[in-house]
Amino acid sequence: MSTTTELAELHHLIGGLRRCVTSLKSRYGDSPAMRRIVNDAERILNDVELLDIDANELALTQQTAVVSGEKIGIPDTPYDSTFWRDVDDEGVGGHNRR
Q: Which domain of life is it from (predicted)?
């Protein structure tokens, strides 16, 4: 399923959620619990709208990655010890520091 189809379905479902919330609010009034539900429904709608914007921006900037099938061999032989001469051990600090 494409992102466009999923977002369209999500907008449709949120429309149903809003209708249900409106119906419940008319039945139960303006109680604290009902206000929380109304706020949650609005937050979900806002989040989906932001996701829709982000998806559109990502579609515009999305680039195809080129994967090379070339493999680079790494030898099993030890490195020359002079290669590591001036390197500090990561997370330990300098080996010459006191």
A: Bacteria
